[in-house]
């Protein structure tokens, strides 16, 4: 359990099959504008993509005050911690929730002596700015038209 900037309890719980629709609505609310800016929002294609990628075994639901407010997916690899996704409902953004959860990952990476790596869409300037404030640096671009920015933060001493 962590506290957000307002001192409210923020927690994580393992996702399960019942979270599929919440995660889809969350993705649309949190990232829909960015997806639309690059590819256009095709409801059927996005539903199909979500059906293929929904992974309750590797996703956690972010909770606050008993409400589901987001999701996070992290791959802990031997050589790095990869933050696959973090999505927070727009009405809960800006409260320090993402900063705190990413901070916990950075602390874990520091203890392990490995970097934290993530990808952000080039059009998501708000997320990019957050990652920069947290010490991430651009490591490259990839994807069709180089629409994704790979960012990483090395542990201290590297």
From TrEMBL:
GO terms for molecular function: acyltransferase activity, transferring groups other than amino-acyl groups. Pfam families: Acetyltransf_1. Transmembrane segments: none annotated. InterPro entries: Acyl_CoA_acyltransferase, GNAT_dom, MshD_Acetyltransferase. It comes from the Bacteria. Residues 10-156 form the N-acetyltransferase domain. Gene3D superfamilies: 3.40.630.30. CDD domains: NAT_SF (cd04301). This is N-acetyltransferase domain-containing protein. It comes from Actinomadura rubrobrunea.
